[in-house]
TrEMBL record:
SUPFAM superfamilies given in the database record: Acyl-CoA dehydrogenase C-terminal domain-like (SSF47203), Acyl-CoA dehydrogenase NM domain-like (SSF56645)
Entry protein name: Medium-chain specific acyl-CoA dehydrogenase, mitochondrial
The protein's required cofactors: FAD
PROSITE patterns: ACYL_COA_DH_1 (PS00072), ACYL_COA_DH_2 (PS00073)
Domain Acyl-CoA dehydrogenase/oxidase C-terminal: from-to ranges: 229-376
GO MF terms, alphabetically ordered: acyl-CoA dehydrogenase activity; flavin adenine dinucleotide binding
InterPro entries linked to this entry: Acyl-CoA_dehydrogenase, Acyl-CoA_DH_CS, Acyl-CoA_Oxase/DH_mid-dom, Acyl-CoA_Oxase/DH_mid-dom_sf, AcylCo_DH-like_C, AcylCo_DH/oxidase_C, AcylCoA_DH/ox_N, AcylCoA_DH/ox_N_sf
Gene Ontology CC terms, in alphabetical order: cytoplasm
Keyword tags: FAD, Flavoprotein, Oxidoreductase
Domain spans labelled Acyl-CoA oxidase/dehydrogenase middle: 122-217
Family to which this protein belongs: Belongs to the acyl-CoA dehydrogenase family.
Domain annotation Acyl-CoA dehydrogenase/oxidase N-terminal: ranges: 7-115
Length: 388
């Protein structure tokens, strides 16, 4: 039976996130966009009300929520401000590979404390020379006694300037391709970690993105996630959970653009009547709504699959590419509906258009999602659905 209703708990979570977006994020979004100031106080409040680290299992003190639960909350946070929301949800990205592969020691040492104390984490995989081609990373982790020594540089790492720990993907066997990669938790206080300057990005400007260099950084072998050589599988497996969440972020941004467009089109007059009475404008708005609804359903489907034990890589890529491209289109149309005012930073929609662009780039570009989808279709195997 197909059932699109959400539970009372999910409604409560959605309302919590909606109120948080309305009261804490929206009033400060413009300030943080203009200044680029990191919204640490807002993140701390999000932690206090339970909107961070939603997937930590109950046995380690967390709320143990599923991917669909996260999506329901995240859409509201991204509606509020996607720069802040990316910063809030970067912890989930860093935690995703850890929750897939960590043993009890790591869970107790690094994950459990996150349920008690405000902690920030970062997912450090991309490098200056390798983004889409993860197997091309050059950071190494060399075993010396009971430690690994990490050397290399990471790039575009969200929350890097504030992180308490990093999930780092490194090569433990540089000759074994993606099978020679291993994941580690690295305490940010470890000597040898050099944090780069905060990058000035086109959108989501208050989110903290930096390069990070590791120079002879010593990591105890106990901080390894999974086994040696399992890092690529774990880091990629994490995307099955995080891509639906990124895709719903694009839905949140697009929904904000839609709401602004409806309000503006009903109050802006041209030729003696509101511009919304023109079919050329109202159809643009109708198409925004159509695509937002479709995008949300794709996100929910991919989340439902993984929450219910099915592999969702194919559907997560479809949700990610559809929603990212959709948000870019919808926010561009919103700017169009605002006319000259849309192009001006005193009005809200140019921020949304700038913010939307990153959804086509991070967590696998729109091209890479198409590569994944094509591979599934060409192989003719691996698309798992409850009805297959
Ligand atoms: C604001 C921001 C935050 C980020 N946060 C994080 C983070 O927290 N952690 C992290 O590890 N990374 C993060 N990233 C990195 C992000 O995931 C990468 O930028 C992204 O994966 C693309 O890699 P690249 O920039 O090296 O581009 P490249 O891989 O060099 O790609 C350049 C272009 O070539 C295209 N291309 C590449 N290969 C193919 C192919 N096979 N077929 C077709 N087209 C192809 C790409 O789609 C793209 O258009 C972040 C990036 C940004 C900008």
């Amino acid at each position: 039976m197909i059932d699109f209703s959400i539970t009372d708990e999910q409604k409560a979570l959605r309302d919590l996130a909606k109120d948080f977006a309305k009261n804490e994020m929206i009033p400060k979004a413009e300030h943080h966009d203009h200044t680029g100031e990191y919204p640490k106080e807002i993140l701390k409040k999000a932690f206090d009300v339970g909107l961070m680290n939603m997937h930590i299992p109950v046995e380690y003190g967390g709320s143990g929520l599923g991917v669909l639960d996260e999506l329901i909350a995240s859409e509201e946070l991204f509606y509020g401000c996607s720069g802040m929301a990316t910063a809030i949800l970067a912890n989930n990205l860093a935690l995703a590979p850890v929750l897939l592969g960590a043993d009890d020691y790591v869970m107790k040492k690094f994950v459990q404390p996150m349920t008690e104390t405000f902690t920030l984490a970062a997912y450090a995989v991309t490098e200056p020379g390798a983004g889409s081609d993860v197997a091309g990373i050059r950071t190494t982790a060399k075993r010396v006694g009971d430690e690994y020594i990490i050397n290399g540089s990471k790039m575009w790492i969200t929350n890097a300037g504030h992180a308490d720990w990093f999930f780092v993907l490194a090569k433990t066997d540089p000759n074994a391709g993606h099978k020679g990669m291993t994941g580690f938790i690295v305490d940010a206080k470890t000597p040898g970690i050099i944090i780069g300057k905060k990058e000035k990005n086109m959108g989501q400007r208050c989110s903290d993105t930096r390069g990070v260099t590791f120079e002879d950084v010593k990591v105890p072998k106990e901080n390894m996630i999974g086994k040696e050589g399992e890092g690529f599988k774990i880091a990629m497996g994490a995307f099955d959970k995080t891509r639906p969440a990124v895709a719903i972020g694009a839905v949140g941004v697009a929904r904000s653009a839609l709401d602004h467009s409806i309000r503006y089109a009903n109050t802006r007059n041209a030729f003696g009547k509101p511009i919304s009475v023109n079919q050329g404008v109202s159809f643009m708005i109708a198409e925004m709504a159509r695509d937002i609804e479709a995008g949300r359903l794709l996100c929910w489907q991919s989340a439902w699959l993984i929450d219910n034990g099915f592999r969702n890589t194919y559907q997560a890529s479809i949700a990610k590419v559809f929603c990212a491209d959709m948000a870019m289109r919808v926010t561009t149309d919103a700017v169009q509906i605002f006319g000259g005012y849309g192009f001006n930073e005193e009005y809200p929609v140019e921020k949304l258009m700038r913010d939307a662009k990153i959804f086509q780039i991070y967590e696998g570009t729109s091209q890479i999602q198409r590569v994944i989808i094509s591979k599934f279709l060409n192989d003719g195997v691996g698309i798992e659905t409850p009805n297959a």
